Amino acid sequence: MPYFPTRRAILFGIPVLVLATGVAAGFFSRSVPSDLDLAMSKATASGLYLAALAPVTEPVTVGPMHSWTVSLTDAAGAPIEAASISVDGGMPQHGHGLPTAPAVTRSIGKGQFLIEGMKFNMSGWWVIDLSIDSAAGADTVTFNLML
Amino acid sequence: MRILLLTIPAVAVAGSLVLALPSGQRWSETEVALVRSLSLAALPASPVDPSNRVADDPRAAELGRAIFFDTRFSGNGKVACATCHLPERQFQDDLPLGQGMGRTDRRTMPLAGMAHAPFLFWDGRKDSLWSQALGPLESTVEHGGDRTLYAHLMKEHYRMDYEAIFGPLPELSDLPRRAGPIADPAAATAWAKLGEENREAVNKVFANIGKAVASYERTILPPETRFDAWFASSKFPEPGILSEDEIAGLRLFVGKAECVNCHNGPLLTDNHFHNTGVPALRDLPEDAGRESGARHVLEDPFNCLGPYSDAAEKDCTELRFMAEPDHDMLRAFKTPSLRGAADRPPYMHAGQIGTLDEVLSHYIAAPAAPAGHSELRPLDLGQRELSQLKAFLQTLDPIPGGEEVDSPAPPSGASAHQVRLRRQRHGPRALDGPRAGLSPGWWAYDHQPTGPGHHCGPLAAHQRRRR
Ligand SMILES: [Cu+2]
Question: Of the N and C termini of chain B, which has fewer Cβ atoms inside 10 Å?
């Protein structure tokens, strides 16, 4: 996701100029963790699944509605063909949720599912939470996104 | 002073080029991209509207324009769309509350670029321009007409234009002059007696009127501003068309003041709904904002998924994936575009705030919301910064003389019934017009700050939470 550093800089470059003095690392933090995990592929919280999230079209921009896919395998790497997945998220710094109610609308096979109705209406730090339930059990995973 | 600065990852700063300029100001590549994202250069063509098959048919736009200015399309023969949406005034009326056959409960919105909005009205109770256009036609205090009246008028005055676009009009001669599902009891009773088939036929004509008007409204685009001209100039990002103060205001806008959180993109709106603690007017009914708007749009037979829409279900993504009506949407109102905003006081959804200075004061103070929860946090900005911010907002006004003013040019000799472009440019009407009837102290302004926190970002505890 090469656009992350760039977009991160869009948001965070501004205070540099407000400060006018320092282009240096290590400023104040309100709440974006400095080690924010931007991985789009990871194990779920209890390790039941490996989940990978990807936008259907890139780049992901603020404003338009877009679709994503989630690819799901069990811990051993075998695709999960049937699962119920719900999508939530929001901006932790702003305390609000997603502007829309995205949903998994169908399975596209080989452990891939289509998420429709995703939208980001601001720049900044977004999280996307997936709750996954299948024969393998219920688990959750959170992805971070910098826009 | 509250600290609004955020962590700056070293890699991000190092990764962006910095333009060192003669003025000593530094602009990173990514800041330039952010400024570009606000300029007209970043505005795409109006998105297609699959729910309106004539959206981009020039004949429909021409018919829609004629209707837009035609005062016959009203209960008293005196109100057209252009009565409140004055072309020479950014298609709004400078009044705190719109004034048709009666006084509305909301500020008239400008129209430029509205084709980009997924939801219309301050509460988003409509999901297309065509469906939006139908609301005022049936409102007692706006056009004050009803569905059979408009169908008859189409047949009498625009039959050929209509039929060339939409096909034959239905047989209307047996239908009453005034019938529709509206507040007027006689019209409502007549509507109930029409029978399903007639109601369907009339509804279709009614929807098509909206589609023609929408087709015209899609042609109303935001004019170039000084900000856009500066961005396009060879001087950018150095002062030139914009002064140093105006540019400083831009930096505050995208930086410390965090206006850009909600006022983003080339239209300077996120097209979403926010409770910003705007005071309630004592003499108006309670206004739940988006909470009721979201409910209404789901129930509306003229929505994207309804029988009068030309869209396939799959095309109605905004409606299908709309966030459910929810208490956290209480008194959330649509973020208005800031293009031209400096030139069109008064402000907010019911014209509660008279001047731009007072708007800025409102954002600084971040008063508690009269209902629901304000997303604002008090801001720490000095007088000089406020004046810079205001100076920047004024650069978003259309370049004088560069604004294309539409005028009625009807296809069927309706000029006698056209709205005259009667109002000259004038400043805010502080306490005349509709507001004059309101009691003293008609707006409750509560300066109680809601505690420290993030500006455009809502309360963690109260705002629509991550579930
Ligand atoms: Cu936000």
Answer: N
